[in-house]
Structures are given as C-alpha cells and as structure tokens.
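Per-record layout

source: Sciurus vulgaris
name: Thrombospondin type-1 domain-containing protein 4
length: 658
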Amino acid sequence: MFVSYLILTLLHVQTAMLARPGGESIGCDDYLGSDKVVDKCGVCGGDNTGCQVVSGVFKHALTSLGYHRVVEIPQGATKINITEMHKSNNYLALRSRSGRSIINGNWAIDRPGKYEGGGTMFTYKRPNEISSTAGESFLAEGPTNEILDVYMIHQQPNPGVHYEYVIMGTNAISPQVPPHRRPGEPFNGQLEAEGRSQEDGEEKERDGEKEDLHGEAPEIFTSESVQTFPVRHPDRFSSHRPDNLVPPAPQPPRRSRDHNWKQLGMTECSTTCGKGSQYPVFRCVHRNTHEEVPESFCDSSMKPTPEEEPCNLFPCPAFWDIGEWSECSKTCGLGMQHRQVLCRQVYANRSLTVQPYRCQHLEKPETTSTCQLKICSEWQIRTDWTSCSVPCGVGQRTRDVKCVSNIGDVVDDEECNMKLRPNDIENCDMGPCAKSWFLTEWSERCSAECGAGVRTRSVVCMTNHVSSLPLEGCGNNRPAEATPCDNGPCTGKVEWFAGSWSQCSIGCGSGTQQREVICVRKNADTFEVLDPYECSFLERPPSQQSCHLQPCGAKWFSTEWSMCSKSCQGGFRVREVRCLSDDMTLSNLCDPQLKPEERESCNPQDCVPEVDENCKDKYYNCNVVVQARLCVYNYYKTACCASCTRVANRHAGVLGSR
C-alpha cells in the first residue's frame, strides 16, 4: 500500500515538479534545471537503497476483550501507516514505550484528529459514513524519536490490521538537506530521517524476524525486492513506471551560462508552532563557485516564483481556554458562579479541544467562584405574639416584625422582600365565651303609653351550662335588662293610638300580625281622633309586627363589638354570635340568613398626621440625613425634625399607627 504510494509520488515528482518559466524545474538540491529527485527513503538523488520498508498484517484471532498489542514502531520510523482492513467495532490505540497514552488510552475513545506523540504528528481517522467500509487508521510522516506500540481494543472479530513504515537501512545515505532547514521539517513532501548505524539496522531486522506478531512475520522490502511483491498484496505497484502513465516531458538542453538562480534559504516561519508557512529565497550565484552575485547577472525571467511551504509543524503548547463567568446564582447575599475551562491546542490556525492531561504542566484555573451582588436584608421577628385581645371568642394578637440588614441595623421595609414578610397581626380564637354576657336588642316599645315606662332586653351569661344570674363566672357587671322611657304627660297629650293586633300569620315561630294606628288626643275620659300630621313629631308605632304563637326554634344572640383593629385607613372589628334555643341552650335551629355579622369594617377615614408647627426641616437636603440614618443623633433630629419624625412614625409599624 505505502510502497505503491511512494512509487506514484516519485513518478509525479519526476513529471510535474514545480514547473518554472522556460520549461526548467528545480531539483531537490534547489538548483534550477537539476534532475535530482528525492527517493523513497527521503534522500535527494538517492537510489532507494538507504532504507527498508517494513510491512505486515495482524490477523491473529483474539478471544478476550480489551487491549491487544499489534506491532512495535521503532525509533526513527517514517511514513507510518496503520490501517484496519475493514470497518469494525474495534478501536486502534497508540502508546509510548514509557507507558504514556497517545490515542485511545485508559478506555477513553478520542475523537478523530491530530495527536502528537513520539516526536511526530499522528493523524487519527475514523470514517463515519454509513456506506463506508474503511476502517480506522493512524498516519504519520515521522521520524519517531522513541519506540511506540500499536494496540487494538478488541470488541469483535479482528478484521485484520495492515501496518507499514520505513526505517533507514544498512546502506543509508544521509539526506541532503539544505543548511537552512531544521530536522523534522517537510522537504518536498518528505521528512528528514535520522541516520541509523548498521548495527541498529541489523538489530531491528533481527528483532523483526524473531518476533512473530501473532503468526505473521513482517515483510521487509529492499531495493531488490521492491519491484516484486507477494501475492497477498495485489494492491502494490512495481517501482518501474507503469505503461499507462505519461512519461516525463523531455528536458530542453541547458543553455550555457555562468550564472543561475539558486535557493539559498527560507523566509522566517510565520508562526513559532502549530504549522506556519515560509517561502524559499532565491539568489543569483556563480554556477561553479556558488558565490552570490548581483541579480543582474541572472536572467530575471528565469527566476523561480517562491511557493509557500509549511513549517513548525509541531503543535503549540496546550493552554487553558477560560470562558466568561456565569451570572451569580443569587441576586443578593453569597452565591455561586461558574465558567467553562477547556484545554486547547492551536494547530494549522485552528484551536482544537484536547484531553486535559495535555495542560497538566499548567495550573488549572478555578471553574467555580463565590459571588455577592449586594448585601441581603432579612425579616426578623423581634417579639413573641402578644396575648389575645379578648379573653374568649375571636380576638387578635400582634408581634413586632422588622427588616434588618446583615449588620443588624433596622432598615426600611422596602429593602426586604415584601412577599416573604411574616404576619405581625393575626386572629386568635380563645374558645367559646363561657364567661361573657350575651344580649338581645332593646324592645321597640315603652312599657307605658304615656308617662314613665321602661324598655327591656334579654341578658344571659354563657358558662359551662346556660342559666340566668347570679352566676359566679360573669362577675357583678351584668348589663342592665331595662332602661327608662317616657312618652310624655298623659292629660291632653297627643299620641298614636294602636288597636289590637290581628291573629298571627303562622301557627308557630316567627309570623306577622296587623293593627290600626291612629293619632288621638287623650282627655280625661275621651279620645279625640286627630290628623296623623298632629302626631308626626312622635315615633309612630308599627302597624305590623312579628308574632310567635308557640316556640318552634331559636334565635341569634351576639356579644358587643370589639375595638377596631385600626384607628384609620380601614380596620375591622369582630363579635361572637351564638344560636340559642328558648331554654337558652346552644342550638343549630336558627335561620342562617338572619345570623348577625361577626365581622365588619370600621374607621375607613385616612390617617391625618398631627402637624407640629415647632417640628420643621431647617435644611432642604434632609432626605440625605434620613438615608444616612443620622436621625439617631440629637443635632440631626432637631435640624431635620419633620423628616426624622415621618421615618420614626413609619417604622413604628402597625401597632404604632393604632
């Protein structure tokens, strides 16, 4: 495979190398019109006897999964080609003799690409086309500067691995490389090979014969055997030029002249690593003495055009590529932020991500860091809940809640999250009011139609059982059951006269009944009917009322209203409502629609702060004093009295505004 590539390359070099004006070309010795070419061993003007081509196929049947050694690549090897003969689920791996993994080591499969190892650059290929049957391959120009081992990660039957490389042989001729080139740089498609002694060549040859690579010995091709190949390599070509190739164009006879153009150096490489470019420098020299002379001595039309050549092929040192920090995980207080840190290497003007171990000579930057955009304030509960505002029933209790900074200062509520503010007031249920007085409304009519009378109401003390006074639990402050009323003197008095009530509209429970109501003047023995206008100043008795022929249910009793929760800006007050039967026991027979309200709004008016004429701001910028929290000092409290007072009232909380 590789020998055929060398032969075709040599033919191509002979027929199409760097065509120049006038039909002349530059030989590998950098002379215009020279016919010297580089042989398969990389020797300018060589005869293919200075190297050996080592080739073989690893076909051993493997049984266990894991890494299996395929072949050893010796030090100084060039033109390395390791290729699977068919696509498979196996992987090729490369490791140095010192144990350092280069490709696919430690059960980690690398991506196809370029990898440095053994002093050269290996190209790792893995065809991924569905229709492709080609297997994996390692390709490298060499030369290697240490012994490398090729392995197969065995997972399915071995399809065969073809290996091939070139080593300098016993009759090796040192490559004729111009002095301006450095070892390892390209030279007309070849890399300079390191010379090996005869003993090294013989020893390597003996090792190759002695070590049977799982049943098949490597083939070593010399100058004599390169023209004929074993039958199992039908893809190889003879070193003779095939008949179907176009023969090289005949060189025109050289013109006799004393001076010609010669390459005397290269421009500086565009990069110090990672594959740059440089151009040959041509100078006019004397043909025999090679002494540089002015360019006017040479034909300017024959001066070769410099062509770009790669240089400094070795990759640049790996480096840590640091990404941008992410946003802080918290808007205030201590949070975390992250960034991406990748090991990268530049080659051929491309930045490639490589394994982290390539950056192990550098300290890896941190990928996480703490962050704090601003200091967080938080809600603090300064006091426990107060006692319930009522001894029984439903009341309210309060506690002190403040917004406090992380250094302990009380700050404005706006600096804390209002959605997370703990409640500072809540209802409390002390249970049924077993020791409270329950009252009905006052009766509508006075007990006397004229003169002094009373209006009455029902009073009951709720304890463990319902009874009338005296009871020990409710105390001596029993509400009055009667209140005085006076409808005026009875003689000559104008009053409303009400007739008898009609029958009740229903047989039990709450019904209605009607009666006549007229305006009369009562004399000693008679009544004088007057126009209703005459009695308009008096409250007219109802002409309709509810009636109860017999008990058939219960009625609602309620306590007095509690104090309003706020003195302004809308509060609420509560009372307890119970349904009691005729015998003053708890009942559930009351009409729910007639149940008195247990809660109502109160004090809806706006809060109007008291204006103290003696408390005013003496300076226009008192808002700065408030922001700087200087109101705790007497001087500022007096100079900015109004502003400091407003802040103090606002921070007093809900309790302070009641």
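summary: The radius of gyration is 56 Å. The longest helix spans residues 2-16.
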